[in-house]
Amino acid sequence: MAKLLYRLQRFLRRTQLFLLFLGVAYIMAGSVLLLQRANLVVTHRGATSPPLSSLPSLPSPPRALGMPPVRVGGYGGRSTQIMARGQGYKPGSPLDDRTGTRWLMSRNLEIRHLRRRWFHSLMTEKDMSQVERSTPRRNVPQKGSYMGCFLDNSKKRALKGSVSTDFRKMTSTMCQDTCSASGYQFAGLEYGSECYCGNHITSLRVRDEECNLDCKGEKGSPCGGVGRLSVFTVEDVLPGQRRYRNVRYRGCFREPEISSSTSLVHLLQPNLTSQSCIEACINKEFPLAMLRSLDCFCGYATPDFTLHEPAEEEHCSQSNTTEASLPSTLQRFYQVYQTPVQDSRCTERKFLPEKSSSLVALSSFPGAGNTWVRHLIELATGYYTGSYYFDGTLYNRGFKGEKDYWKSGRTICVKTHESGRREIEMYDSVILLIRNPYRSLMAEFNRKCAGHLGYASDQHWKTKEWPEFVGSYASWWASHVLDWLRFGRRVLVVHFEELQTALVPQLRSITSFLNATVTEDRLLCAESNQDGHFKRSGARQPTFDPFTPDMRGLIDGLIRAVDQALRDSNHTGLPLEYLPR
């Protein structure tokens, strides 16, 4: 009898283990299916899914479900702990009483709502459009007049002016203000987050129901659809009373030998002024307005008219006297203005059509202008750049490669601030971006205190955080360069200041290093649109010198060490402005 009971006991124990194993397997299988569905949505439409190691870019689960802490890699190997905190439960609150069915029912209902919200964030655009068709749309007051829903695709844009993106806060008002400030008459929204501007609508109108996506920052407001553009008219201002931002005088330039390749539009006006010429070129959607006497020309920068060799201003002043007796050589100079119109020859971007066999790093110390160089590379090559990290702010402003897995091979290069040997040897080659450490330290401190586009206040510079920041980050600036020179396999050194003063030659060198075929027109287009959306306005500085003599002694010694290491590695040394006086 005892033997029989012993066998029965062993059998029950094995059964329990077997059932436990089945339960764990069932939960794991369900989790894998959910993660795979999320991974498909995160990837670019129509592209293959990246491997599961890109999961940090997935939407966050409902916070009330009590997710454990997650560690995310940060700059220089540093880690930041992100704690998902529950929103519903507080010790000592009425919810702490877990007895009774009322609490259980309300808690389960809350969790179901959170799960439903999370599930909708993982749905495809097709599924979302079906849900939104059945959901009544609220009437949200609009700033401008709604023109309707129009066809749009990447090969034939309905509005061919400037393009901006905000995957988080886009509204119809924001888009209209952006287009109005750039002198455009129409503003169009697509995919709920993309804003297009133009003065002419070049596609057919379709049913308003096909623009079924809400704006990311304004629920109930139409923001286009998949291949559909919701078009608004911006505030109508009388000619001559318009005020444009970012109109700047480029200088006096000699007319190219083949003027027809540059001046695509020639306007004759009886009372021509620089303002009327600029307005005329904006209406024609050209980035350059050129004056010569009573003639107004509109066009682009081209290889025959690069705007890299300005002439003396007296040539333009003499040419504009309108005297017929002037020699012909003095009648061939233009006064050139840069209009707010975005050069549309380099605005389209995409992921690489085939997976790249080599992994190229775009490495820099924080604050060295990595984001700006990524913007230039995307304009020049037409391909997205990736990132070793995930910066939601950059993704929301149009850097779609920010959310792609950094090893996917779908981006032309990958941003990184890492400098350890193991991290360096993961890349086949590197574009090593170096900036003056004084400016880099101030730029990174500005970012830490006030974000990508803000400035630290005088109070920030006077706190103890600033000396501590310099003490730790200054040595990192030097070790970052030294490590990449030592362990990098194939290194292209780019100095931020040289890129500013000679953008096209430096950008040509970068694209050649990336094995990207780029036309001269596209490089000039990138130069025309070089500012982008992540340039701090003005050159605001603290009202006092934040660097103490001890700080300068430390930084100057590091500059000398890096300069010598560059020369020892057969690279050009640091620019003279870096070196201590």
Automatic annotation (TrEMBL):
Residues passing through the membrane, by range: 17-35
Domain WSC: 143-235, 246-340
Keywords: Membrane, Repeat, Transmembrane, Transmembrane helix
Organism superkingdom: Eukaryota
PROSITE patterns xrefs: WSC (PS51212)
SMART domains, per database record: WSC
Pfam families hit by this protein: WSC
Family membership: Belongs to the WSCD family.
Designated name of the protein: WSC domain-containing protein 1 isoform X2
Source organism: Salmo salar
Gene name per UniProt: LOC106581275
